[in-house]
Design brief:
The complex is a heterodimer of chains A (287) and B (168). Chain A is an alpha+beta fold. By secondary structure, chain B is mainly alpha-helical. Classes of the chains: A alpha+beta (287), B mainly alpha (168).
Chain lengths: 287, 168
């Protein structure tokens, strides 16, 4: 017994190292990032609450500091605004009338009936701690109705743009896999020429994506700056959501299809707010 | 024998991992942030030794895997190995105010890069391209730049101190 104890005691460091590294490797080998193990799910649920708390503290101090800096500007602006207030009051009356008219027009064209999805607004509260992976965390989770694989969109440049999809959820937070991630694939089509393809992320650092498997005959019909949208074909992403613009067209002789380089309409570095789409009447063929 | 307070250091590392993904987000250039967890780990491991270093690294790495989208085991492997390696420098390397913190930060970044490359090549080959970008160089630079200041703060808070060390 002393022999074993002595051996363990003498080689405590190396044995512990081997055990910890083996645990890490086993965990890596027995899961992919798409299959969340129970351990990861439970751990994330606990830690996400703390992470949520830190994010709120960070936002509080961030807002407080920026408020002090803005105080001087607000004072001078206040006097100018007082003068303009009278002018704006009359404008407000006109605006109310215009809004009412606008709402009536919207009702007339049945715009609201065309919306298949309800959306949940969410704020980005945390990003991936390392730089190799590119997920981020939002402040809405299961309790607010967010579900796994829900599509995530944002408004940018006047477009409804694709951001990514929900990967993991806890009660009040969710992790989002951005469409620029290497493991993200989105069924897409060219908005004008209607040619289809598959958009694959090229990593958040580059912030670009590639549209692959586009028929070669499309070469003459595609131009730089053309818009790419989701096709909605057998996909979790609804159709007609804007993805990005074509910035490069690659047509190697030996390839049977084109590869288009896409710059997403969303600037992921500046993204703060997103909308999680909740499908009310999911189609049967949606994966 | 020196009294160890590894639970305090582990808690600090876990806090750093959580802060790195939230409050410290503005400290970024081209979507790249310094790895505060790695920097703290190398100084704490150097202070406490290999055993404490690897357990702290394992705990911090596990937290990073849980709060991020990286597969479980990815960061825990890297930080365990880094904690063990830098723990082995205890009492063997004298860390001055400027040069050694920078060198240790660069060495730690290199170890992280090599291990990330190996793990990515084996388990996530699709991400290999993300390693060979300007972002990696920016992270190296940021880590090197911040390490002397971080080390000074840790010394000020008496979380690290040099003892029984020899000049290398």
């Amino acid at each position: 017994m002393d022999g074993i104890k002595g051996f363990l005691s003498r080689h405590r460091n190396i044995i512990t190292l081997i055990v910890l590294l083996t645990f890490s490797l086993t965990a890596l080998a027995t899961q992919s990032m798409y299959v969340s193990t129970a351990t990861k799910r439970v751990g994330y649920s606990v830690l996400s609450s703390i992470q949520h708390g830190f994010a709120r503290i960070g936002m509080f101090f961030g807002d407080a500091f920026s408020s002090i800096g803005e105080l001087k500007e607000i004072r001078t602006e206040y006097e100018v605004l007082q003068e303009k207030l009278v002018e704006y009051r009359s404008m407000e009356r006109k605006l109310i009338d215009m809004r009412r008219e606008n709402e009536q027009l919207r009702e007339l064209i049945g715009f609201s009936e065309q919306i298949e999805f309800t959306h949940i607004p969410a704020r980005i509260i945390a990003k991936e701690p390392g730089s190799l992976f590119s997920g981020f965390t939002i402040n809405k989770g299961l309790s607010e109705g967010v579900r796994e694989d829900s599509a995530v969109i944002a408004y940018s440049e006047g477009f409804t743009c694709l951001v990514g999809k929900i990967m993991e959820i806890s009660s009040h937070t969710a992790k989002v896999l951005p469409m620029t991630d290497h493991s993200s694939y989105v069924a897409a089509r060219m908005m004008e020429s209607r040619y289809e393809g598959l958009v694959n992320g090229k990593g958040t650092v580059s912030g670009l994506a590639e549209m692959e498997y586009v028929k070669k005959q499309a070469k003459d019909e595609i131009e730089f700056g053309d818009l790419v949208i989701t096709s909605g074909l057998r996909s979790i992403y609804p159709e007609n959501i804007y993805i990005g613009r074509v910035i490069e067209i690659n047509a190697p002789e030996w390839e049977t299809s084109l590869t288009l380089e896409i710059r997403p309409l969303v600037d992921f570095a500046k993204l703060e707010y997103v909308f999680v789409l909740i499908e009310e009447n999911p189609a049967e063929d949606v994966q | 024998m020196q009294k160890q307070y590894s639970p305090v250091y582990i808690v600090l590392l876990i806090l750093a991992a959580l802060l790195q993904s939230t409050v410290l987000l503005p400290f970024q250039i081209q979507n790249t942030r310094p790895d505060f967890v790695l920097l703290l780990l190398i100084f704490f491991a150097h202070q406490l030794g290999s055993f404490q270093g690897m357990t702290m690294g394992f705990a911090a790495g596990l937290v990073m895997d849980l709060i991020g989208l990286s597969p479980l085991g990815f960061h825990s492997f890297i930080y365990t190995a880094a904690g063990y390696f830098f723990g082995a420098t205890r009492g063997k390397v004298y860390v001055d105010a400027l040069t050694l913190p920078v060198l240790l930060a660069l060495l730690a970044s290199a170890i992280k890069f090599i291990l990330s490359f190996i793990l990515t090549a084996v388990f996530e080959p699709v991400r290999l391209g993300a390693l060979f970008t300007v972002s990696t160089l920016i992270e190296f630079g940021m880590n090197a730049l911040i390490s002397p200041f971080l080390y000074a703060v840790l010394r000020l808070l008496k979380l690290t101190r040099e003892h029984d060390s020899r000049m290398l």
